[in-house]
Prior knowledge:
46 strands; Vigilin; three-stranded antiparallel beta sheet; repeat; extended; coiled coil
Amino acid sequence: MSSVAVLTPESFAEHRSGLRDQEITGGVPEDEAYIPTYLEAFPPLPENRGNLGDKSGELGRAWSTKIRPIRASVITQVFNVPLEERRYKDNSQFGDGGEEAKVCLDIMQRTGAHIELSLAKDQGLSIMVTGKLDSVMKARKEIVARLQTQASATVAIPKEHHRFVIGKNGEKLQELELKTATKIAIPRPDDPNLNIRITGTKEGIEKARHEILLISAEQDKRAVERLSLEKAYHPFIAGAHNRLVQELNRETGARISIPPPGLHKDEIVITGEKEAVALAASRIQAIYNDKKRKTTTISVEVKKSQHKYIVGPKGNSLHEIMESTGVSVEMPPLDSASETIILRGEPDKLGPALTQVYAKVHIEFTDGEEQISLEGPTEEVEQAQVQIQGIIRDLLVRMDYTEVNIDQRFHRHLIGKNGANINRIKEQYKVSVWIPQEPDRSGLVRIEGDPKGVQLARKELMEVAHRMENECTKELSVEQRFHRSIIGQKGEKIKEVRDKFPEVVINFPDPAQKSDMVQLRGPKNEVEKCSTFLAKLIQDLVENTFSLSITIFKQFHKNIIGKGGANIKKIREETCTKIDLPAENSNSETIVITGRKNNCEAARDRILAVQRELANNREAEVTIPAKLHNSVIGSKGCLVRAIMEDCAGVHIHFPSEGSGSDKVTIRGPAGEVERAKRQLLLLAEEKEVNNFTAELHAKPEYHKFLIGRGGVNIRRVRDCTGARIIFPSPDETEKELITIVGKEEAVRLAQKELETLLKNLNDVVEDCMVVETRHHRHFVCRRGQVLRELAEEYGGVAVSFPRTGAHSDRITLKGAKDCVEAAKRRIQEIIEDLEAQVSVEVEVPQQYHRAVMGPKGCRIQQITRDHDVQVKFPDRDESVTEAPPPQENGNASLEGETVPRRCDIITISGRTEKCELAKTALLALVPVTEDVQVSYDLHRYIIGQKGSGIRKMMEEYEVNIWVPPPDQQSDVIKVTGQMASVERAKLGLLERVRELQAEQEDRVGTRPVYWNKHTGTSSRSGVCALYSVRIILRYLIPFPVHRSPDVIVISGYERNTEVARSAIEQLVSALQEMVNQDVHIDPRTHARIIGARGKAVRKAMEEFKVDIRFPQPGSEDPGRVTVTGLPDCVDNAIEHLLNLEEEYMLSVTETETMAAYMKPPSRYRGSDGGGPDDNGGLAAKGFVVRDAPWNDKAPDMSSAEDFPTFGAGAAPKQTSAWGPKKF
């Protein structure tokens, strides 16, 4: 068997196209017209000079032995998923990579196979899987199951055959599932069902069904016939659309199983009754013999990208060709690179079939353009064009689209987790929704589909966006002393909290505000979770920061500390507390213990025990009811402090608040302790008379009504009775308990008053009032916020407004009688406010709106809160390019009246008097600009280094300071900001000017230092040296150094200028000794000498203390390198460069030699190594050789030597140009 490889000039040129044309230095003649001989271009293999006669048998056996092929351990499989079978069709619109990439990543981690995805123009998915065989099979099965839509089918086989499908330990079933990439469910043994369910792709289902039927047929007691017929003839046996094999099944009664096209097996299995099997086998054999005798084949080359159009959807086009012409079209596998299509059929039918193959119209949708390309026969293209235009007209009638602008930060909420929300909307309304990617920075969402569905989907998306805008905000009260602990060093701890709740925004107040309110904003559920988490965190901080103070006599502090701090260290370690003692020079006797409560108490007991051992002190306990402790202690401890001062050396300790203990401890000298005890009991008895307590229970929703608006109700009860009424705080468990404290008769009277109010509240009544319909919206908008406030303030009264469209002005109030009456009065007040509202327009130029609003709108929010008004800013007009003239010194221009622009009008709504106050406050926020006269010479000092000085002033005074550019040389500096800030900035700027003028008075000048021209401003080394002096002497020379071509002028204090002058003169003398020397270095080595990013040449310059300059690209002398420095250093550097050149040239020469050897000689046009088309001549002739066998004279066909007669004597041996003859 022999084969012939055709080497064309085009293919050879393509093969050599990657090689760079270079000069060939040896082994090949330099003549441009030189053509190599056949033996030079194709040298023969070396001959075996051994004794061939002795080993001929061995060689024959060696070559005749079939070598077992070695299979690669790594294989690659490629398969396609059509658009209609993709599970995630629109997933590419959301996120990076989408679900398909995530699924593939998960499969790669689980199986160890490598997966690559690509998307075709027809939106089909191409998947390449690489890895070991087992890994590839497992990965393919999972990909098909998770990325391709699954179909299902059932196949019925006898129950007793099921176990053969499963195999030993389920191995057969697992192998079958991997092989077909399907999921096969077999009924349990106790289930009488015979059906086996197969789930997977259509192709996989067919393969699995075929294999299961084969297994069942093998186990079937009936006859089984296996016909091994060539795969190429199976389509003729099956017929178009499998009609012929179905007809055979019906006529013979046998079951015929033909392998599907994707399964490369020649075996056809026939099962059934013996006569039926024999009849079917004979019919199939007859078809096969007939087609094999009559059919022939032709091969055509068609681009691989066009194969899918020939196959058609689900292979319909192939079946149509088979049905109309009786010709089978054999397509190469999808994972094959072959483009050859084989047509098999009768000779007279092959022509029409080939015509049909080429006659398929190809339709392609171009990306990014509104065009559809059609390719094919003219008539069919015109028919397809008419049909497509009809479809387009139909779509324009049936379909609609709309675009809505939704803030991009809400897009992820529109999409939902794993696209759940957007997929539900698509399915529910039968629409397509396109949401832009995050990098696009666009908020435009496009909806396409049925007109009604588009409107419904748009409505729902807008509702979701609106709901997101009204997200939940909650304020958490956290003592400011804990803020730093929660935030952590450099924000590490709060970052962990934010990472745990990424959807919640946590804002801490500015430390200067002295506020305890921490704001949480985000989705309600997440805000609640974050609030609970922070509350637990704060509780832990509170527990760990419990503080306890004890008073210990000053003389005992050193004993508590111990030698070298041993005692106090031991107490701290054993009790896990922080103990702070006052300084030695302090008169304080208080020791502070911090930590958990029980640990602090243990440390306190141990310290007190030390004091008791050292002093003859007495300790006494007095029982005083806990409810009297605050009144006995007095305001800021004044009463108990007076007792301790009166009884010298006595310390009185009350239990911590909330402990419930009645024991008060007194420590000190015995006599003073008894005296303090008597005074304390006397004070407690006095307080107890005026501290009678009564308790009352009321529903929490009634508390606000009992208190009244602004506390008016509870204040009236207190004034009438003299009793103190205490309501429960929000964090107390007993929400219904109200405590009344005071003298007994006052408490009884207050209790009676409150009980009367509660009795009225418990009597529920229903009442109506009239509210004009135009005011209804104010009460029900913002999710009924006004109604909620009314219910909270007036004992839970329920206010019901008529439904929208009812055209009724009557509202219903239901609740306690007093609450209903109070609510009615409040509603009437609100209506009066609404009717009294006016709108005031304030003209503020659009350019100042952002400054008026302030950061995050804080300034305008403050105005709305202070004056109870609403402020509305106009929409920004982008077409306005020219700003109005600025207000100088806060005074508007009076030259004629102009019509105000709508984009400049700010509207304030509210009561007249409040609107006027708000207007005044708003105008006060409008920035003004004032000019400050500052000498031009001082501008650079005011600006400071890199603008630090001017930036500091702008931040300090909250203004914008504009300094004119140097080319104007103007003395006017403009200050812009609020009036008060501008005034403060002017004073600060003038103060800075006075400081600079005072410094200038102390400065003097010195004689100039002359700068030699050849080392002046044009010398890089000189300039660098000059700036080095300036950096070194910066603390001596605060003003910059001025340079001119020949003179350097130094300004500053006299002693500093002398030092700088001396240093610069030394540098000048050193620079004058430098020399410049040129050296020629081969340009091919420059890149390696310079190194990556100049690293190598910088190292050389630092080592030899020189400056090395390489020529620019395109210079006249590309090899000239300039070295600058001291003579000895320059010589050493040049020697180093020449050594590097010699070393690098060895590898350069070797590389060029190898490249020249790899280049074919025929491509050379001259000794300069020019390419084949350097001179714009004709194209290359291709690869030409001399003395080739085909150049010899053709063999003589009549010659008995070249063509001997069989049976005749052998011709004498003669060597031919074609090599030895083989027979």
